Records
---
Amino acid sequence: MTTLTARGRGHATASSRPRAARRTARLRESLVGWGFAAPNLVLMTLFLFIPIVWALILSLQETKGFGDPEWVGVDNYAKLVGDPVFWQSLANTIVFTIATVPIELAGGLGLAVLLNSVLPARGVFRTIIVLPMVISGVASGMIAVILFYESNGLLNKVLTAIGLGPVAWQSQGVPAMISVVIAAIWLRIGFNMIIYLAGLQNISPELYEAARIDGASRWQQFRSVTVPLVGPSTFFLLIMNVIASFQVFDLIFVMTGGGPGNATSVLVTYAYRNGFQIREQGYGAAIGIVILVITLAFTFIQWKTSRTRDLAE
Amino acid sequence: MKLSSKRMLGAAAVVTAGSLVLTGCAGFGGGGEEGGDQALTFTTWGSEAEEASFTELIDQFEAEHDGAEVKLNVVPYDQMFSNIDAQLSSGDAPDLFRVDYGNLGVYSSQGQLLDLSPYFDNAEVDEFVPAMWEAVSYEGVPYGVPHQTDVSAVLVNTAMVEQAGIDPSTLPQTQEDAWTWQEFADVAEQLRASLPADKYPFVYNWQLGGAPRWLSWLFQADGTFLDGSTATIDSAEGEQALDFTKSFFENDWVPPTSSTKGTVYADSLFTEGTAAMAFIGSFLVPDVDYLAEFEWTAIPMPRDVRGATDLGGNALVATKDTDNPDLAAEFLKFMTSADAMSLFCANTNELPTRLDLEGDAVQFVIRPDVMPVFVDQAATIEPSDVKQLTSPAMAAVNTALQDQLEAAFIGGQSTADTLSNLSAAIEEAAQ
């Protein structure tokens, strides 16, 4: 881009109509910008903005998805306020987010630091940790079902073998929530590790050298050099993980279906249940809009308050 | 970085082409417009045996009807109805599809299906079991053909009951000697006493969308749940049915994971040997025959005031906007002809819906010895059951049953609260 600007300027001084030439150059520059942004914009408009507006319209209707829709205004939202399962699903989503995100972040950073050092066979470890990321969510959910299967799953067999007795992974609320949290962490920690690894490799070794000369211990180096300097990665991952946790669906849908009772029902599984199983698409869309508003609000607050998001050396 | 206008034009062309390709994708799996004017698209889900039978019958139909072409599209059951819903809403539905009797009401009440009354005269209608013709009708108008039915009966792992001291030769075989609820409870108690803690006397098939199968207990107690748009479930019969089924969990007669929101099918728990008996539909007989590594037999469902079972099976329907309504109706007629239905049911262990195929007319391919129990059991379905089970409210009633029964079975919700919640949900759905 710099070349283009410089060329434009050079051309402008030689021209007899400098202002017009400058305008052409600027127009050209912005066209180039739009050219680069266009493919993404087209895709986002098609698959993001139009569906969002559509969902908003749908949330103001009562419709089964086919047949004649009926306009009901904000009735669906009014119904949400008085729906205990919606509030429980929201609470479950928050619990799920609070339980997964900090462990995913801390675990991802820990693994990244470990695998950034001279660990034997670290290539193998990196591959193993990242592997769940490349498997589809549904397939991972199926694997998790086999592991947590209550009557003769692997985990309960191991627990029984070491004398601890089986855990009611599928028939009691708290163990069921723990099982989906464990599975979610297993799935996502690899992604966090990769982003942190990239972040770590951007930190200059001289900083650690300087810290060591100043007498900083290993922990102090980690606390005062590593953690602040991976700030941009942390900011990015925090947003991504919170959004992912708020939008968790495939894993819970496959593992527990939102049960037992509504113990693992989260906003998206509840939206799916209403939209596609009960066929109250308007109500399902209203829940979808609530998820959108919450994630936008969180991202906005985080954006405004984070001090380390743009921190670089 | 230099970017000539030629390149920019190229980039713009790529973007436009890309978006054109993407818009083109939107119509995948669509319906009516493909092929010639004698072409039909038919979307269904199905087991291997079902798919093979559909293919065989379609070939036969095409051979008998010059120029006719039926394109079979087999999709996974999980995606069947969200696909159909999306295709209906985008005006791209197939000409024909398969639908269970519970979901049929949703489509017929929303005016999405072809009215078949001009195509079937009274004599043809009279060839079907009246309750099954009722199942495809909405406000007296037929919107599909009853292709097959299947009902649940009880499969028994003979070795496991024998170990509990029950002689397999004394097991009931017909509706006349079916166990009463009390006799069934005694057997469950006897099995519980002899089985280890991680094995269970039986498992009921109300998981994964099967919650309406609970209604068999309500019907056995001579109860109802819907009368027009009034909920009738909050009754003495409802209380009796709910208390009895709650006791399955309280007494550890069923696996704790097998509640209405369980994610494991009853037949899996049976074939893996976790449960000694299982309530299972006849369509699963081939699967159980293949998977179970033990001897098993089938016995009738227990009965209380009357016998009852669930209304399984599926209808075939044509969509209202099909380009070939005459040919579509012809295909539906062909699929429910005596020969075609007999072939389909024999290969898939499903039950016919025609009066001339009742009794032992169908020669089932797999485990023909256990099929008379299912045929016999099907006769316990009464037209009044069918009327309730095919109401357009059924999809919402299904979800209410899942939630409320789960809360009652393992969430400790009282019988009174459960029935009153169910009553409210059913009433709302039926409005």
Note: Chain B is about 45% helix and 15% strand.
---
Amino acid sequence: MTQITRRDALRAGAALLAAPAIVSQANAQSAFNWRRFAGERIEVSLTANPRSQILIQNQREFEELTGIRVGSEQIPEQQHRQKFVIEFASGRPSFDVISISLHVNKRQVGRAKWTADIKPMMADATLTAPDFDFQDFGAGAVAYSTQADGRMDTIPEFTDYFILYYNKEIFQQANLQPPRTYDELYETARRLTDARAGRFGFVGRGLRNANVVLYTSFLLGTQQRDCVDANMRLLTDTPDAIWAGEMYKKLLRDTAPPGVAGFNWNESQTTFAQGRAAMWLDGVGFATPLEDPTRSRVAGKVGYAVVPAGPAHHHCAMFGTGLGISAASNERKRGAAWLYLQWAVNKTNQLRFLTSGAGAPARQSPYRNEEAIRTSRFGRDYFTTLIESGRIARPGLPEIVPVTEFRDTLGAGLTNTIGGADVATELRRATEAFRPVLEASERAS
Amino acid sequence: MGASKRQPSTRTMPSGLSDTAALQGAAADSARRKRAYARHYWPFVVPAAVVVFAVIVFPWVFTLWMSLQEWKLGSGRSFVGLANYQRLLTDDRFHWSILRTLYFTALAVVIPVVLGIAAALIFNRKFPLRGLMRTVFILPMMATPVAVALVWTMMFHPQLGVLNWILSQFGIPPSMWVYDQSTVIPTLVLVEVWHWTPLVMLLVLGGLASLPVDPYEAAKIDGATGWQAFRYITLPLLAPFIMVAVIIRTIDALKAFDTIYVITQGGPGTASETINIFLYLNAFAYYNMGYASAVVVVFFALIIGLALLLLWSRERFKDAVR
Amino acid sequence: MSASTMRRRPLRRLLERIGFAFAVFVMVSPAALVFLWMLSLSLKTEIDNIAFPPVFIPNPPTLDNFRAVFERNDFLNQAWNSIVVSFGATAIALAVGIPAGYGIAKMRATRAAVLILIARITPGLSYLIPLFLLFQWIGLTGTLWPIVITHLVLTVPIAVWVMIGFFESLPAELEEAALVDGATIWQAFRHVALPLARPGITVATILAFIFSWNNFIFAMVLAGRETRTLPVAVNNMLTFEQISWGPLSAAALLVTLPVLVLTLVAQKQIVAGLTQGGVKGA
């Protein structure tokens, strides 16, 4: 084991210095042997979302190409995030490939070195297909997948931006334009709310933990923008933080359907798809079912726009997912897993993500594919929104280890405000409760 | 071995086992011989003792040791003494989880016990299809909690759930069920009541079957009403059975996890975060193994008290229960 | 008695009967309705399932939801895991629990009984942390063993507890006669007590099996993809895309059906086991 690790480390060092040269050398090689690990079997554990659905539906392609058998599954995200950490910690994870929400688990996985560094494998011409074209990945996505110590322990799969979904029909009837600022958003939502008729101006996450990313979307528009400062000190009880909290409270309290305190994105999606909410602020990857006429009453009527601007800045919250290879798997399985990763994020699959509304791919080439975009069932405004969001994107959660605890603590306070609790009090309480946890965690690293 | 067994005095021993009075009344000599006799049965208990030690006693001891460590899954471990317990003293979230657990427990004991007594009185009478009705009634008790919880989740949906439609048929405005902080615990209690009222019913029904007939005949002659007979004869005679039901319900309500976890995961906010959920999140979502272990120890102490109560009452009402 | 009360009597009796029938209805219908609604959801199309006002009778009923369950999620594999775990945990519990119940009953070992009782009422969750770390340490994770072993936490105490009660209630004369005739303790147990205890063993088997089958928390934390049991699998079926109530209900129904059938068949034993000493599962 130690020998392999040392060799990997050496390779990583070499790769850092000479990556372009090796890539071009790989390109020179004509016949790449995809079937090198034929007969191997790998387990793939994914978070349940539209991207994973696409990968699972098409995995036969990979099996036929490589002769590797793939056992894959998708698990609801909150359970998945808890579960894979436990499995890694047990020392014998039941998977070889794992999808990791970088905004939640990046530093935890990096600190424990649970997933293998991909750079040395990418540098190995016998392991990496010549047409993999790593340069195609956006610099931001690559940076997101790279740890502070230079290891790249996931391959970027997709980037998620918060966007504004709005119901064009409702907006036309009321003769309104999509809001450009959060204050306008609130005013518009209030005007469009008719609780008696069961129609609401806004819907969004109220559920503890999940709701924090909606809150940080508002926070990103303030002067302070982030939840922590450069020294990893919490900034969640400042005047800016309270402004964002008040926005959150009044939007969900005054203009969202009753019961929203228990809504995650899927309940919000259902509400919006039924035409019961005029606007919905959430991740770009949840568009697919909205445009499916058998499931949605708003198919063809959905407008897409970048999130509104705050009083000081204009950013949309960004999240990222990467695919990692379990460091606990043996070398052959790791090789097979690397082939799977190359297939999973190849240009075809990344284009599938984009054109089916499943999320913003990490590669840049799909956005340049004019023909695919023209024939997609999504309107032009969907793709413009995506590209514009990419320009104003900023991480929606702090890069800390105890993200789940952070989201639970702050999220519970936010949910309380929907019930009428005072924003400043709740934020102060949450901040005080979480501060020692964060300090202890930062000391440990 | 064989010789001691053939002693005549042992002949009466086993039947006297369940009879405390007889045991107490026995001569000291006889008692010593019984103990000597009983000692030969220890090999029967060895396999179970090994298993119990490995999967039950060892975890208790290990938990105690872990509660003195700062132990984060994926990071290191260090001895911190009583720091975890100190943190529990000042952790508002933990205090609230205790209060919530007590609130949940109080409701989840009282309601099933009251309904269970009522159901037992009903099923104690003879009526057509009684066997079938009773079978249907006790089905919830055995149903897989997770599977049923998922169905309840669908029924609680504020816009599409069948329960709000049923309410609307009676002209009652829709409830937010588990989607509102003020209704979530009563709603979870509803599921608990649905699950466990049958058990209370069975315990009380057993009690009703053992009631003597004479007092009722006497009461009838004295002109007592049905309610008076229930209040002054049935209820006092049933008291031991109700007592057992109350204790069992208390312990089970304290243990409740599956339903709450599946339906709300402690939400909205922390409105249904009981000790069990708090414990689970700390251990398996935040990976604070040391801190979570301290929670287990405190929770355990709470439950031991109730365990002693249960055992005491079991001894006290033993014959009545059987 | 006056003539007027005589005349009122039939009416009062009728009213009483109606009231009683209503009370029976109110008591029994929640139990029935939840299961019927589960069945209804599992037999309807997705459109009917989220219709409001709700559609009660599937028209026409569809088996698509059940087909969907069997097609995805390795349902059969998970069912097999559940069977292996439940039977394994029950078999081990009986193997150690029957002799232990006998020994404890004969020795009148109150302290051992207390230990079993405390184990019985401790929340299962509290065993999970130490056992998880133990399995990690001895490298058992990734197999079905950790799940079987953790389920012993449920099954051993219930088996021992039921058997103590049962052996205590057995008449001792036959065994004693055997002992007087020169049999060893073991022979007396094997040939006299054990056959007599068969009804008690049935009760212990059924309850241990049901508790193990229904358990969620242990497998949720300890099981991987290949070792997942049914309750965990069904909880994982909550999908990302809107609401998918049909397949979820179908799966939920399939998971709980075996225990419902068992309850119908073995009602008498279950009632006896649960009311004796009054201890039930986690």
Note: Chain C has two domains: 3-42, 74-275.
